[in-house]
Design goal:
Dna Ligase, domain 1; single chain; two-stranded antiparallel ribbon; 146 residues; three-stranded mixed beta sheet; Arc Repressor Mutant, subunit A; alpha+beta; globular
Length: 146
């Protein structure tokens, strides 16, 4: 994967720097992380990196197409590798847990929004908030599709 990152940066006219490599590695490890979480991870390896470097690096990596961000509620964007593809996020309001779903899971909704309203849904930024199975009360009826 690292070689692909290097190739993508060079193809876009950018050098492969240790800071860029460390930020990409942190995004990979942390998955849905804020810039501050990524900074804390990078800082464990390199003391001299500052948070503004992480923000600039994330912006560049998104421009090159290596990372992407999503909004998972209030607060900072969360970043993940663009190679993971577009997916839907389920966010538990109780524990903050994040579950990723394939686009196919919401295809009926997306098709209905298009057919009924002419609305083209950006599934990559679709986030559904609720309560995960671990945080729901035990007597809560489970909704399952057959």
């Amino acid at each position: 994967m690292s070689q692909t990152w290097d190739d993508a940066l060079r193809a876009s006219g950018y050098r492969v720097t240790p800071q860029r490599q460390l930020v990409l590695e942190a995004v990979t490890r942390l998955e849905h992380a804020t810039p501050e979480e990524i900074y804390a991870e990078v800082k464990q390896t390199v003391v001299g990196v500052n948070v503004s470097t992480v923000y600039r690096t994330l912006e560049l990596l998104e421009q090159v197409g290596l990372v992407t961000h999503t909004h998972l509620g209030h607060g900072a964007h969360r970043y993940h590798l663009a190679a993971q593809g577009q997916h839907v996020h389920l966010v538990c309001r109780a524990c903050g847990g994040i579950t990723e779903l394939e686009q196919a899971a919401v295809r009926p909704l997306v098709e209905s929004l298009d057919a009924d309203y002419g609305f083209d849904t950006d599934v990559g930024h679709l986030t559904v908030f609720g309560t995960c199975v671990s945080c729901r009360p035990p007597n809560h009826a489970k909704m399952r599709r057959s």
